[in-house]
Each structure stands twice: as C-alpha cells, then as structure tokens.
Amino acid sequence: MIHLSLFDGCSMYRVACERAGIPVTKYFSSEIDPYAQKVSKANWNDIDYLGDVTQIIPKLDSLPKIDVVVGGSPCQGFSLAGKQLNFDDPRSKLFFEFVRIVDKVKPKYVLLENVRMKQESKDIITKYMDVGEPTLINSALLSAQNRNRLYWTNIPFNPPQDLGILLSDILEDADTDRDKSYCLDANYYKGGSISKYFNKRDRQLVFSFAENLNNGCHLVAEADVNGFDIIKRVYGRTGKSPALTTMQGGHREPKVICSPIRDKSKTVRSGGRGSYDRHEWDSVDKLHWRKLTPLECERLQTLPDNYTNHVSNSQRYKMIGNGFTVDVIAHIIKGMAA
C-alpha cells in the first residue's frame, strides 16, 4: 500500500503501520519541522519527504496512486482547552489543505484525527470529510493517558477495549498519585515552578522519595483527614488525624506520610490542637516532584522507547505532544487489512 501522511511529525503513523501489520510499499511524508524530520529520518530509511503541505499539490501528479491519506491537522484553533478560534486560526485552516489533497488523490482510505471541539466546527469538518460522523476515542483505553480525540475515517473498525494500562506501569522510577496521566500536549516542555504547574495547570507530575526515606511511605494527594484515612487503610494505624496540610499560596501542598517513625524526638502537631502521638507518625513536607521524562512521554503515546532521542528534550516533548497515540492509530488501520 502507498501511504501519504500529512502533518507527519516524527512519522508516528509509520510506527502504527508496522505495529498493525499494514504493508508499506511507499510512504510519503509532509512535514516542515526540521527536528521532527530528524527523528523520522533516524528511525526510517524508506520515507519520501514532500515538504510543506501547502506546496505539495503540484507534486501529486508525479506520485504513484495513493491508497491512504492520514493526518492530524493542527488543532490549536479547535481545542476546547484553548482560545477556540476555530477556522479563524491560520493553523486550523490547514484542515482545508488536507481536504484539497484528499480530493486530488482520491485515496481508498482516509483518516483524520483532531481534538474535541465545538459542535459547529465538528459539523464543518464532518461535511468536508464526507465519511460520516467521527468516532471519539480516549487513548486511556490503550495507554496510560487520558487523551480524547475525534477520528474521521472510512476505515471499518470497532472501538478498542480497555487494556487497563496505568500511569504507574510506564514510569521509569518514582510513583504517582493518579491512575492516568492528563493529556500530554506540546507545551509540556515549558519550565517554571513545578508546584504551580501541577496545581494550576493540572499537568501530570510524579514524585520520588528522598534518599533517606524508607519504604513505608504513602502519598496523600490532599493531606487532610481523608489522607489520614488512606494511611490507616494502608498501614492499619488508628487514632486521631494529625495536621497534614500547610497552606502555601492559597492551595494545599501534597504530603507524604511515613509510618511508623523511629525517631521519638519528632512530633506532629495538629493545627494548634496539640501534638499527636510522636511514636507513630511523622509528616514529610518535601516531595521531590518532577515532570515526566521524555521516555515516559513516549510511553504515554505508545511509541518505542527512545524513538525521539535524536533531538533535545524540549523538542522531544513538543513532537510527542503533537503526535498520535500510536496504538490507537494502529487499532484503527488494522481495518484496512480486514
């Protein structure tokens, strides 16, 4: 089969073809990001690069018959989490380049991925795609992240089954306070205050214990009475709740609780209500929060480990966040072999 991948990024679709067992006679890629192209070239030697999607119409007449056109056009103008400029955003207007190319090559199969959006925008895309209503799939079914995406396609497929993959399953080390990562996006590379990034942006973070802490520690997402109840269930401890919160910048700081302590000189105080049993509990205020590593982000998108390690970490985060969840695409395109 001959494939044309528009907005190809680092050729995650090529990975999906291999994983789904879909034959690739020729693979044409349209992408302008030099870093994404560098990663693509480092992983594949059978890709023909066509350049800017707005400039490839004249090149199509010299290409062999295209069987499949796939793409995830830029979504910044559509995203419900963004400014929702819709088709007024020049990046979102690139969807019409996708339509022009599909109309030109008339492939047997077509697949477009994009974010959840307002019904008005979805209806416009559905009209131009002319393959029926899109299917909403959460990548959480096949990966460790919550990532809801719409898929317009004429490829026959059934919705995927939940594989039960957790965020803790894909971490290199450390631990996490949630079952699934928040949706990974291209802005994950940005720096700044980790605590503000976590509390205000709801981005995924994981934590590592300090070297001098023993096993017997448990994360309390909000260190309050509910958190104490978690500790009771885990360690079988009983008693009144110690104060497990501090207010910094108007929000609760997560804590790790260690039990039982061995240093009897330490005392946990309970919000001005006196000290708690110093023989049983100690609160640890300093968590070693960190962002997900690029390798962990690759795993969120079900890429092979170190697939993107040919460029800087900032560029890796960007292209991974902009890309497909590979196993979702692989699940869909298996329908082409049916």
Topology-level CATH name of the largest domain: Rossmann fold
Superfamily (CATH H level) name of the largest domain: Vaccinia Virus protein VP39
The total count of strands amounts to 14
Report the end-to-end length measured between terminal Cα atoms. Answer: 14 Å
Main beta-sheet strand count, sense and barrel state: 7 strands, mixed
The total of helices stands at 10
State the helical fraction: 25-40%
**Average pLDDT, all residues:** 75
Protein structure class: alpha/beta
Q: Record the strand order, biggest sheet.
A: 3-2-1-4-5-7-6
In the CATH scheme, the class of the largest domain would be Alpha Beta
Annotated CATH architecture of the largest domain: 3-Layer(aba) Sandwich
Number of domains: 2
Radius of gyration, Cα only, in angstroms?
24 Å
Shape, principal axes of CA atoms: globular
Taking pLDDT < 50 over at least 5 consecutive residues as the criterion, the unreliable ranges are 197-204, 207-288
Strand content: 15-25%
String of helices and strands: EHEHEEHEHEEHHEEHEEEEEHHH
Explain what the structure shows.
26% of the residues lie in helices and 17% in strands. The chain contains 10 helices and 14 strands. Helix 1 packs across helix 10. The protein is globular. About 27% of the residues have low confidence.
